[in-house]
């Protein structure tokens, strides 16, 4: 069987349905509820402490509570980055909170490199046009799962993610939109409900929803990737090298635009 026939056979297989995805995601989420929510709860609790200090401190940045709150929220932000990768490892490898964070810490620079490359290439894509930017953002969305499952990182992880999605772009987009619309619908509903009671309760409920909903969305996203990997098992041990130069160009374009914007903003602040 030649490559064209193989591609045709792959395209004949439809991705798992939205209903089946939700059912499988919910079963997985429920079976590992404590671990998945516990991982996100770590930085969330820290962020809540920082937010409380900010809300009860004086308006001046020099005041003790406000300064402490800003520092604590900054620390929470860093931990959020690590916790996202830890959540992925908990889902992919079915390990506990401690082991998930250990794996995340050991691979954090690889993840950050994937994040930076994705950001720059996608920005470069949007500079070339809205359509390329949207296409890039979908192509690279499974890069972190490639890192966690196949230990590939950098541009190799991005290109591997693109290869898994090839032939399924619209199906992946549709299934991703469904889960995020559902989650944001629940968030908005809770915000409206709690705002009718007490504002502070509403703020706390935002954090609670985040802890509960974000892991479910991550499970849902991983299961899409998992089913794509089952459809294309031949990709597991392959390093994709095609079109590297084009995406490197897009990354350079994104970097140039980022630097240009930073210079413009700096000059504007200097003039003021």
Integer average pLDDT? 85
Low-confidence stretches: 1-10
Question: What is the helix content?
Answer: over 70%
Query: Separation of termini?
Result: 67 Å
The tally of strands reads 0
Largest sheet: none
Principal-axis shape: globular
Order of helices and strands: HHHHHHHHHHHH
Give the percentage of residues in beta strands: under 5%
* Number of structural units classed as domains: 1
Radius of gyration: 21 Å
Q: Count up the helices.
A: 12
Structural class: mainly alpha
What does this structure look like?
- The chain has one domain.
- By secondary structure, the chain is mostly helical.
- The longest helix is centred in the C-terminal third of the chain and has 33 residues.
- The protein has 12 helices and no strands.
- The N terminus is likely disordered.
Short description:
This protein is an all-alpha fold. The protein contains twelve helices and no strands.
Label this structure with key terms:
single chain; 272 residues; mainly alpha; globular
List the helices and strands and how they pair.
Elements: H1 3-12, H2 18-31, H3 33-56, H4 64-93, H5 97-106, H6 108-128, H7 130-139, H8 143-150, H9 155-165, H10 169-195, H11 199-231, H12 244-271
